[in-house]
């Protein structure tokens, strides 16, 4: 009764003194329910969500069954957002879409993100698939620029100044880069430039970016300025790997027909947390802490250190503003400690493909064409890794000497500094290396810091070309060859 009286008093005051805000009648906004009047008086920021729209961009930056987990993560994220109340017209999905129909998939047409999980593939919009997953299309979607699109559904983030945007990306990465299934890598400086342009356009109120990849902290470290109303969390810091989970040999065990990781540690942590809470009551900060603790659990040796960047003050906002909330969780109460189980045996993202190929080989019948094909795939992958590792080390020795070369390549800049001073130089070094030695591929992303350090040391293009030519007498002919796939930069 007291709240109702307070609402009537507030109505009388507002009807005299404040006619409108943002072009809407503030009185009608404040007097929907007595409880909402109380929220308005308390300054609850969630009330502002009624003035805007939630948008989401979900990106799986890989392809191939060995990378099953990335598309599974994105499909799962879509299901959470739909249950939270977001509309398909406001959710834009990038995924290669080759997993559900893969001959390796033991459940055709089904994708799961948990050993006991439901199908997360059903109903997922196929906005940008296959060769339409490009940097150009991703940036055009973020900026709301339909004229810059090439292929796909044509959906873009057509947001306004009161809208909230959620971006979730899952894939391989390396220092300063993120993978894409076709075309060049996403370089950190280009992504930050697009985020700055989005802010300058005045077409959002706040933006949250969840990033799953190895060395994902390097995408924002020393690059994402404050004042853009952007809050970002990453699966790992700037110098470490991220991890897959629900993998073969894990506990609880996968269904026996699966031989690939079903999800990623950080990604599964934030999504499983979102599924059990009323997101009207859980803040970004609270989820960050829960995910950080579960991702780097002390019960196992492996794990990464979740980070946060940008305008950290936004972490006081509720997840509801970006993800909505499942009505089925309305009665759930938030707990500061994790109630979800620890992950048992995380797998280094860069080794998840080898784990898949080994299980594929070991499960195939002896002497079968399938076993021979799996054996060749495994040997090719290991040979490619050895070639990339050896080539980078040799180039370092040619440029800096046998003693200094390894030290220069492995050097890590102090926290707060970006990976490289001259991003154009880094891209040039990537192209020069790949011209002589072949594609870095998703595995070779780990060496991006070495190439950045070559730039930071003042090495010129001609010097790099000569060292690369000496280190690599030919470009290997394999599925990762730059002769087939083009350059990574």
List keywords for this structure.
489 residues, alpha/beta, Rossmann fold, Topoisomerase I, Chain A, domain 4, 3 domains, 6-stranded mixed beta sheet, 3-stranded antiparallel beta sheet, disordered N terminus
Commentary on this structure:
- One of its GO terms (biological process) is vacuolar protein processing.
- This is Legumain prodomain domain-containing protein.
- 39% of the residues lie in helices and 10% in strands.
- With 489 residues, the chain is an alpha/beta fold.
- The protein folds into three domains: 42 residues, no CATH class; 297 residues, Rossmann fold, CATH 3.40.50.1460; 122 residues, Topoisomerase I, Chain A, domain 4 (Orthogonal Bundle).
- Strands 2-1-3-7-8-11 form a six-stranded mixed sheet, with helices on both faces.
- α10 runs antiparallel to α11, α11 crosses α12 and α11 crosses α16.
- The chain is globular and about 65 Å long.
Mean pLDDT: 88
Q: What share of the residues does DSSP label as strand, in percent?
A: 5-15%
Structural class given helices, strands, pairing? alpha/beta
Approximate helicity band: 25-40%
What oligomeric state do the depicted chains represent? single chain
Helix/strand order:
HHHEHEHEEEEHEEEEHHEHEHHHHHHHH
- Determine the N-to-C terminus distance: 65 Å
Strand order of the largest sheet: 2-1-3-7-8-11
Query: Any idea of the CATH topology of the largest domain?
Result: Rossmann fold
GO molecular function, one term: cysteine-type endopeptidase activity
Domain Legumain prodomain: 376-472
Keywords: Disulfide bond, Glycoprotein, Hydrolase, Protease, Signal, Thiol protease
InterPro entries: AE (IPR043577), Legum_prodom (IPR048501), Legumain_prodom_sf (IPR046427), Peptidase_C13 (IPR001096)
């Amino acid at each position: 009764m007291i709240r109702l009286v307070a609402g009537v008093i507030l109505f009388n005051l507002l009807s005299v003194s404040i006619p409108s805000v943002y072009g809407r009648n503030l009185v009608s906004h404040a007097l929907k329910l007595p409880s909402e009047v109380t929220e308005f008086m308390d300054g609850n920021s969630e009330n502002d969500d009624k003035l805007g729209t939630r948008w989401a961009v979900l990106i799986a930056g890989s392809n191939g069954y060995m990378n099953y987990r990335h598309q599974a993560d994105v499909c799962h994220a879509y299901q959470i957002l739909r249950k939270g109340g977001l509309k398909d017209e406001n959710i834009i999905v990038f995924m290669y879409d080759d997993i559900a129909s893969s001959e390796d998939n033991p459940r055709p047409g089904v994708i799961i993100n948990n050993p006991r999980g439901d199908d997360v593939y059903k109903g997922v919009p196929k906005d940008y698939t296959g060769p339409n997953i490009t940097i150009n299309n991703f940036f055009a979607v973020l900026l709301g620029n339909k004229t810059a699109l090439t292929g796909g559904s044509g959906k873009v983030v057509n947001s306004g100044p009161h809208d909230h945007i959620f971006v979730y990306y899952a894939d391989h990465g390396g220092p300063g880069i993120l993978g894409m299934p076709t075309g060049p890598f996403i370089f950190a400086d280009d992504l930050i430039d697009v985020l700055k342009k989005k802010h300058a356009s005045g077409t959002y109120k706040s933006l949250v970016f969840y990033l799953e990849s190895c060395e994902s902290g390097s995408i924002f470290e020393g690059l994402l300025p404050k004042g853009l109303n952007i809050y970002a969390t990453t699966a790992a810091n700037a110098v470490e790997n991220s991890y897959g989970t629900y993998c073969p040999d894990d506990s609880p065990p996968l269904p026996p027909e699966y031989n690939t990781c079903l999800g990623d540690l950080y990604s599964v942590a934030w999504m499983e947390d979102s599924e059990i809470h009323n997101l009207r009551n859980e803040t970004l900060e609270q989820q960050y802490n829960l995910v950080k603790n579960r991702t780097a659990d002390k019960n196992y040796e492996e794990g990464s250190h979740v980070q946060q960047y940008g305008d950290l003050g936004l972490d006081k906002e509720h997840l509801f503003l970006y993800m909505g909330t499942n009505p089925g969780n309305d009665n759930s109460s938030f707990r500061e400690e994790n109630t979800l189980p620890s992950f048992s045996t995380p797998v280094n993202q860069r080794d998840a493909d080898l784990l898949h190929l080994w299980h594929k080989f070991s499960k195939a019948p002896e002497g079968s064409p399938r076993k021979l094909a799996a054996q060749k795939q495994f040997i090719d992958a290991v040979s490619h890794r050895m070639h990339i590792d050896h080539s980078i080390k040799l180039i370092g020795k040619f440029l800096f000497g046998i003693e200094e070369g390894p030290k220069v390549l492995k050097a890590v800049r102090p926290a707060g500094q970006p990976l490289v001073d001259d991003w154009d130089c880094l891209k040039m070094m990537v192209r020069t290396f790949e011209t002589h030695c072949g594609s870095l591929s998703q595995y070779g992303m780990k060496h991006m810091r070495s190439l950045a350090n070559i730039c930071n040391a003042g090495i010129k293009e001609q010097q790099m070309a000569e060292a690369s030519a000496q280190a690599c007498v030919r470009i290997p002919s394999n599925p990762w060859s730059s002769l087939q796939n083009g350059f990574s930069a």
